Structure formats: structure tokens, C-alpha cells
TrEMBL record:
<dbReference type="InterPro" id="IPR002123">
    <property type="entry name" value="Plipid/glycerol_acylTrfase"/>
</dbReference>
<keyword id="KW-0808">Transferase</keyword>
<feature type="domain" description="Phospholipid/glycerol acyltransferase">
    <location>
        <begin position="33"/>
        <end position="143"/>
    </location>
</feature>
<dbReference type="GO" id="GO:0006654">
    <property type="term" value="P:phosphatidic acid biosynthetic process"/>
</dbReference>
<protein>
    <submittedName>
        <fullName>1-acylglycerol-3-phosphate O-acyltransferase</fullName>
    </submittedName>
</protein>
<dbReference type="Pfam" id="PF01553">
    <property type="entry name" value="Acyltransferase"/>
</dbReference>
<keyword id="KW-0012">Acyltransferase</keyword>
<dbReference type="GO" id="GO:0003841">
    <property type="term" value="F:1-acylglycerol-3-phosphate O-acyltransferase activity"/>
</dbReference>
Length: 209
């Protein structure tokens, strides 16, 4: 069911968006890793999952999506799982770790937690600590609006340099902060690499800390 649904989604994306451009394919790992991506559009997780095929990638998604009829069923079939973005639970962290270590799938995560924030929240580095998986930062520059979609403006996805698991780290609060900074720095570098003039505008009434 996973591949059937994704091939249907791929057809829809190609029809309305066209093929996304990809930079940094050499940084796509052949073993399960944490793909930590920017989040600017509903299409971001689909871009990431499709580009990583035939590898399987499980995405974290906000809880409310799983309560929507049909959509909730579809995203469960492609291994997405819910997370409370305000208060992630230990159960969610355990599930994320299991996906990497036991299920041998990639984990897709949006460190900002929302399309309406650019502030990286803690959690990605903690999952690395438990899973011992590398982190690959990913910058996605999707079409910004309906006009860009209708005119088939190319979206882009760029895979950055891996942040490897380091057994010599204590993975304490300071280490977590340093890893978050590395992720942010790579987001900035990748955005400039795709399009140095790209700006993601968040409406004032939508901004979240």
C-alpha cells in the first residue's frame, strides 16, 4: 500500500507541480538516517518522501491531520505518525527511535515544528542520541502560492552535509544546542545554494515562537 499511494501522489505532483529539482543527492544515505527539513508548505513531506524512493521514510505529522477522514487513513498507510508539536511525549520519541533502529526506515522531521516558525526546537538531537543515526539537514523551497503551482514553477530540495552520530559526545543540553545550530547553519547554506534571493515570508498573525 505504501508504494501504491506514493506512486499516485507522484503522478499528481508531476501533473500540477512538475519534477522538483534536487541538489546534493550524494548526501542521501543508503542506511536509515534522520532527515531534518525546513517546513514551508504542505507539499514538503511529499517532496522528501518521493525523492527518497525506493527507500521508505516515516514522517512526523501534527496530531490534527490524523483526525481528518481519508487524509488520516492515507498518511497512516505511508507510515506517518502523530506528534503533539507543543508537548512531544516520550511515546513519540520512542516511536521515532524504533522507526530508525528496528523498522529500518528513514525518519523525516521538521525541527521548527510548523510552517509558521523558523525557530528550531529541541528534539532532533535527542532522537539522534537514542537511535545513533546520522542527521541530514534538508532545505526545501516549494512553490509559494497557487499561481506558482499553476504555472509549474519548479520546487527544489537540497540535501546537506550529514551531522554524524558522535559516540564521544555526552549529548547533554549544550550538545543538543550545538547540533541545532549546525542544522540551522546548513539550512541557511542550502537555501543560498538553491536560490540566494529566496525569502520565506510568514504572515505576522501566523508567526509562532
Amino acid at each position: 500500500m505504501y508504494y501504491i499511494i506514493l506512486h499516485i501522489l507522484k503522478f499528481i505532483i508531476l501533473l500540477f507541480h512538475g519534477q522538483p529539482g534536487v541538489i546534493g543527492r550524494k548526501n542521501i544515505s543508503d542506511r536509515p538516517v534522520i532527515y531534518a527539513a525546513t517546513h514551508r508548505s504542505w507539499i514538503d513531506p511529499i517532496y522528501l518522501i518521493l525523492v527518497l524512493l525506493p527507500q521508505k521514510t516515516a514522517m512526523m505529522g501534527k496530531e490534527s491531520l490524523f483526525k481528518i477522514p481519508i487524509i488520516g487513513w492515507i498518511i497512516k498507510q505511508i507510515h506517518a505518525f502523530p506528534v503533539n508539536r507543543e508537548k512531544p511525549t516520550t511515546r513519540t520519541i520512542r516511536q521515532a527511535t524504533k522507526i530508525l533502529t528496528e523498522d529500518q526506515m528513514n525518519l523525516g522531521i521538521f525541527p521548527t515544528g510548523s510552517r509558521y516558525s523558523t525557530q528550531i526546537k529541541s528534539g532532533t538531537a535527542f532522537i539522534q542520541k537514542l537511535s545513533k543515526a546520522d542527521i541530514v539537514p534538508v532545505a526545501i523551497q516549494p512553490p509559494k502560492n497557487l499561481w506558482q503551482v499553476l504555472t509549474h514553477q519548479t520546487g527544489w530540495i537540497a540535501f546537506g552535509d550529514p551531522i554524524p552520530y558522535n559516540s564521544n559526545l555526552a549529548y547533554n543540553k549544550e550538545d543538543f544546542a550545538n547540533i541545532d545550530q549546525q542544522i540551522q547553519a546548513e539550512f541557511d547554506r542550502l537555501d543560498a545554494l538553491i536560490n540566494p534571493n529566496y525569502q520565506y515570508h510568514i504572515p505576522e498573525d501566523k508567526r509562532r515562537d
